[in-house]
Amino acid sequence: FVPPGWSYEHDMELGRFLYDHSEKELQCGDCIKEHLSSVEVSSELEDCGVAHLTDNQPHTFWESNGPVGKHWVRLNMKKGTIVKKLWLMLNGQCSCYVPRRVAVYGGAPNRLQHLRTVLINENSYQDVCILRDMKTHLPVLEIRILECRDQGYNVRLRGIKIKSFWEWDLILNADMFQPAQLVRYPLLKGVDADVLYRRAVLIQRFIQLLDSVLHYLIPLSEDSTCSFKTLR
User: Fold this and answer.
1) Domain for residue 79, yes or no?
2) Lowest CB count within 10 Å: 62, 63, 128, 144, which one?
3) Are residues 162 and 177 in the same domain?
4) Residue 67 to residue 209: CA distance in whole angstroms
5) What pLDDT, in 10s, does the model give residues 24-61?
6) What are the phi and psi torsion angles at 63 (to 5°)?
7) Which phi and psi angles does 128 have, rounded to 5°?
8) CA 125 → CA 5, 62, 92, 121, 161, distances in Å?
9) Residue 195's domain spans which residues?
10) What is the tally of structural domains in the chain?
């Protein structure tokens, strides 16, 4: 049921509270050190090894040394981590070493599933986000370099960057909604913490359901008869 006196504006404020709460968790610590267990690569050139992917140095890089189209980077994540964003840090010294098309797979080591394929902008030589907003823990993330620019043979990456959080950080409970936490959310002040908790669970469930069907609803092109106004 809708709580007495509740409005759309209350839902918006509760949504902002949940977003702010989750984002605070993401700003803490070094995600590479805290959440990444180990990194494996398909191959490596001497003096350009896997360690350079996480050394956070601007002038070092990993370079593959294997057959074309068979280059990959495998991230073994610590139990309970959920990836918010995953970036490739490109090395633009020579364009033929820059990835043009990459695919991201995730899941258990022996059951990886395709998550996303990304075509990297030809003008990009900086950090490129290749994955975002995962909803569950994936023990392994594998980045497969399908193609390099200018028909390049091997690939160079300056590094990888991750923004992630622990899955238990986002478990909802009524203790989240104590008065001291609601100072910046005036519409929520005075509402029973149990009511806010139940409403938050409902909102999260709705978001999960909407997210699962949203790609069927969004128009694919401007010529589509559907419109965002209709969707709203």
Assistant:
1) yes
2) 128
3) no
4) 42
5) 555 556 788 889 999 999 999 999 999 999 998 989 99
6) -125, 130
7) -120, 125
8) 52, 15, 5, 9, 15
9) 8-27+168-230
10) 2
